[in-house]
From TrEMBL:
Subcellular location, record wording: Membrane
Family according to the record: Belongs to the peptidase M50B family.
TM segment ranges: 6-24, 141-163, 363-383, 419-443
DNA repair is among the record's keywords: no
Taxonomic lineage: Bacteria, Bacillati, Actinomycetota, Actinomycetes, Propionibacteriales
Protein name: Membrane-associated protease RseP, regulator of RpoE activity
Region (Disordered): 248-270
Membrane topology: Multi-pass membrane protein
Length: 453
């Protein structure tokens, strides 16, 4: 039964991602058709075609590898002045006739020329006024921005569903003098965080002081303790090491002496600089706080997510490199490392098959996982680099800016931006994403992230 629930979780996640991909591509297809563009293909997946159907001028279908999708819009690349003479002409069968230079100098020039030739093989005489590159700049922005915008909208509505019903649950330390909920058994070097205690590890200062779960800490080196934050600051600042701790157990006052000096470690979650600070090894009792909200609350939460995602995108190559090192055993895989759709499917399966999770918590986790993937996909596609949608958006905006400056300065119209000249960069970026994708998929198979709890 557990295996069946695992497969169910994987299936739910995969289907949801495929639906998201399909809606992303519809975000391109619908405005492209509304603006008069010619869309010849709409496919979910890559590789060999599994199924397709021709509807009008567009072929709709599924491909074997469900790692993305695409919409083929005719005329993405303008004819290059160096490759074509005057306007494109057509032979008696309606095929475009190119007057291409007989020789090309350089690999990149040949690459661009070949890409133009392949693009214009699809152009027919009746398509002249329907080519994508001829659309006004703002229509190009709408068409290319439609896909990732759909992903962000999916994420928004899923987040809204969760935030307005289930809410955001956080743990807060109980007020008053801190009550010990758990105690570290030993002191583990920060560089080895996450492993179990070994016989050679020193006993934690809390155990050395005689503390046990349920004890209430009342004083630290003679200072009365009113709350957890005060105690934490006193422990960290106790550079002398020796600490006399007053606590109550079953209403009886007790005292213990220990040393809080341990190996250097970060001073906070946001500052990873290793500093020698005091360490006791206690976890205070907490309670769960639930915060719910509607549209504005969701937008506020997504604003924070946007900042975090932009930072994550900036460090993505480094994070993927760390995953590659984890694959070959050079380091442990970090819990916050990126994952592929394979990793997402594994987490979905583990969630649904987890015996201790309530059904509501399972459903919320799945919805948040799907929303998170959509949010990341949307943000990633707005990065202004070809072949991402953001690269085409940036090209359209540059075209508008360039033409606007030309009008202001009463100069001739500079014409359309030639995105083909950026193809070498696009191929390098695409190859980079392919490599990172492969590394993450292998990582999710060899050193997968697992559900905590």
């Amino acid at each position: 039964m557990t295996a069946l629930f695992y497969l169910l979780g994987v299936a739910i996640f995969v289907v949801a991602i495929l639906v998201s991909i399909g809606l992303h591509e519809l975000g391109h297809l619908i405005p492209a058709k509304r603006f008069g563009g010619k869309v010849t293909q709409y496919f979910i997946g890559f590789g060999p075609t599994v199924w397709s159907k021709q509807v009008g001028e567009t072929e709709y279908g599924l491909k074997a590898i469900p790692l993305g999708g695409y919409v083929k819009i005719v005329g993405m690349l303008p004819p290059g002045a160096e490759d074509l003479v005057d306007d494109v002409t057509y032979d008696e069968d309606g095929n475009p006739v190119h007057k291409v230079r007989k020789s090309n100098t350089g690999m990149f020039t040949q690459l661009i020329t070949d890409a133009r030739a392949a693009e214009w093989e699809l152009v027919k005489p009746e398509d002249t006024d329907r080519l994508f590159y001829k659309l006004p700049w703002w229509k190009k922005v709408v068409v290319m921005g439609g896909g990732p915008t759909v992903n962000l909208l999916i994420a928004f509505f899923l987040f809204l569903l969760v935030f307005s019903t289930y809410g955001v649950k956080t743990s807060e330390v109980d007020a008053g003098a801190p009550v010990v909920d758990a105690i570290s058994e030993c002191v583990i070097p920060y560089s080895e965080s996450g492993r179990a205690c070994e016989e050679t590890d020193p006993v934690s200062p809390a155990l050395g002081a005689g503390l046990r779960p349920g004890d209430t800490i009342t004083t630290f080196n003679g200072t009365a303790i009113a709350g957890w934050e005060q105690l934490r600051d006193l422990i960290r600042d106790n550079k002398g090491g020796t600490a006399t701790i007053g606590y109550e157990r079953d209403g009886k006052p007790l005292t213990g002496t220990t040393s809080t000096t341990v190996e250097a470690r970060p001073t906070s979650d946001s500052d990873e600089t290793l500093t020698e600070v005091g360490f006791l090894g206690v976890v205070p009792t907490t309670h769960t706080v639930t915060e719910k909200g509607g549209v504005l609350f969701t937008l506020d939460q997504m604003g924070t997510m946007t900042v975090d995602t932009v930072q994550a995108l900036g460090t993505l190559p480094v994070k993927v490199w760390d995953v590659a090192q984890a694959i070959v055993g050079l380091e442990e895989r970090a819990a916050d490392s990126p994952m592929s759709i394979v990793g997402g499917g594994r987490l979905a399966g583990e969630t649904v098959s987890h015996d201790e999770f309530p059904v509501v918590d399972k459903a919320v986790f799945l919805v948040m996982l799907i929303a998170g993937f959509n949010f990341f996909i949307g943000m990633l596609n707005f990065v202004p680099l070809l072949p991402l949608d953001g690269g085409h958006i940036a090209s359209a905006l540059w075209e508008a800016l360039r033409r606007g400056f030309a009008r202001l300065r009463r100069r001739p119209d500079p014409g359309y931006v030639d995105a083909a000249k950026l193809l070498p960069i696009a191929y390098v970026v695409a190859m980079g994403f392919v490599v990172m994708g492969v590394v993450l998929i292998v990582g999710d198979l060899v050193v997968p992230l697992h559900l905590e709890g």
